[in-house]
Specification:
410 residues; 2 domains; single chain; alpha/beta; eight-stranded mixed beta sheet
Length: 410
């Protein structure tokens, strides 16, 4: 995973979306060139688009909620907006707006993108999202997983923000409703292309980084797991001062828990073991960032807070490696995803390079009528929990329906 600067390193400033159809049309060719070049997405197949058009024609609020497994996801979803002829607004992490001499800060809002501070209480972004859904002019895109985990076949626990936004808007939208449209998104290597040479070449580079001899006589899956165990052992020595034993998923979970529990004991005075790892990490980051704003911190204390912030990133990295993902179903696509993560985490690449030309498969599911759920259940918190659970099940169902990738036989 690519470590993004936090609010103490890159200050956050809200920018309201100002959709401009001229700039949406003008950038279309550039966006598609980026998909083909940087992300190697040559084709996009869409199923279920018929679920979307009637909602937009009726003027209802529409929130698109896809899984988030690849850096290309945002561009693929903007291509969907081109197809339906309706520009969409999208909530995006504020770090994406930095750089390029301010061009992104000027252009992105005109394409419908607006920043959100995921580590803070970002009322401005929430208000903008609710207003977009209430107006019903543009669909709103939000990735409910929050991070790119490179786990196309397996959805990670959803954050409740998507359901909260939709429910809040539904309470304001008189005479119409707000819909959440679940979206399953996967990538497949094009037929006739063999990505194995690129994958094996990356595996060679990774082993060379450890000063290992390349071991092409070992099946790729075993090479990947051997490498993963070596990386985990190094982290165990760093945090536990000794290597552990046992199945890889249990060792990963144990180290992750050790890091998060220690940070919660230090900063929160309680362990939130009932919550998901991303939720616990968000609370810790928010606490540390608020503390760093204080004026009375000694230099030593400030360094400790920044080290703790780095440890939260390590915890999320560990969360992104379930340990059984590839062995559960050894496909070329799953092996490629793991290697893309190694490319980012070990070799320091900002974006793990895809290992061949791909096609994106988008599958839109049956929309969820949020106003109907609100009328039936009444209480906002209960509806948010119910809708989040339902959305999670529907997205995973769409991913399952798309099916597994190409079997890995070597």
């Amino acid at each position: 995973m690519h470590r993004l600067p936090l609010a103490d390193e890159l200050p956050y400033q809200f920018l309201a979306p100002k959709v401009n159809r001229f700039w949406v049309r003008t950038t279309r060719r550039f966006r598609r060139r980026m998909l083909r070049g940087e992300h190697r997405v040559e084709r996009i197949d869409v199923e279920g688009i018929e679920h979307l058009q009637p909602l937009l024609d009726h003027g209802d609020g529409v929130l698109l909620a896809p899984n988030h497994s690849d850096r290309a996801d945002g561009l693929v979803m903007l291509d969907l907006a081109d197809r339906i002829g309706r520009p969409m607004c999208a909530m995006a992490m504020h770090q994406l707006f930095a750089g390029s001499a301010g061009v992104r800060r000027w252009l992105f809002p005109r394409l419908g993108l607006f920043p959100v501070d995921r580590e803070g209480s970002d009322l401005a972004a929430v208000k903008a999202a609710v207003e977009i859904l209430s107006a019903g002019e543009h669909p709103l895109l939000v990735f409910p997983e929050g991070e790119v985990y490179h786990l196309t076949d397996r959805l990670t626990p959803l954050r409740e923000g998507v359901a909260f936004l939709a429910t809040s808007a539904a309470r304001k939208k008189e005479g119409k409703t707000v819909w959440i449209v679940p979206v399953g998104l996967k990538y497949r290597f094009l037929d006739g292309h063999d990505p194995m040479p690129a994958m094996l070449g990356l595996m060679d580079r990774l082993e060379h980084r450890f000063t290992w001899w390349n071991s092409r006589e070992i099946p790729l899956v075993e090479r990947i797991y051997r490498y993963a165990e070596a990386m985990l052992t190094l982290k165990e020595l760093e945090y536990l001062r000794q290597a552990s034993s046992g199945p890889l998923p249990e060792r990963i979970a144990s180290l992750r828990s050790h890091i998060v529990n220690k940070l919660e004991d230090r900063h929160l005075g309680k362990r939130q073991e009932h919550a998901t790892v991303p939720s616990r990490v968000n609370d810790l980051r928010r606490h540390c960032l608020e503390a760093l704003k204080g004026q009375a911190l000694s230099p030593e204390t400030a360094v400790q807070f920044r080290r703790d912030l780095n440890d939260t990133f390590v915890a999320v990295q560990l969360f992104s490696y379930p340990g059984d993902y590839l062995r559960e179903n050894p496909t070329v696509e799953r092996a490629s995803e793991v290697l893309m993560k190694f490319d980012e985490d070990v070799l320091g690449s900002e974006i793990g390079a895809p290992h061949g030309p791909r096609r994106a498969v988008l599958k839109l599911g049956e929309p969820i009528d949020v106003a109907a759920r609100l009328n039936a259940e009444g209480k906002l918190k209960a509806v948010v929990r119910t809708v989040t659970a339902e959305l999670e099940g529907r997205i995973q169902g769409l991913l399952d329906a798309i099916g597994p990738g190409r079997p890995l036989d070597r």
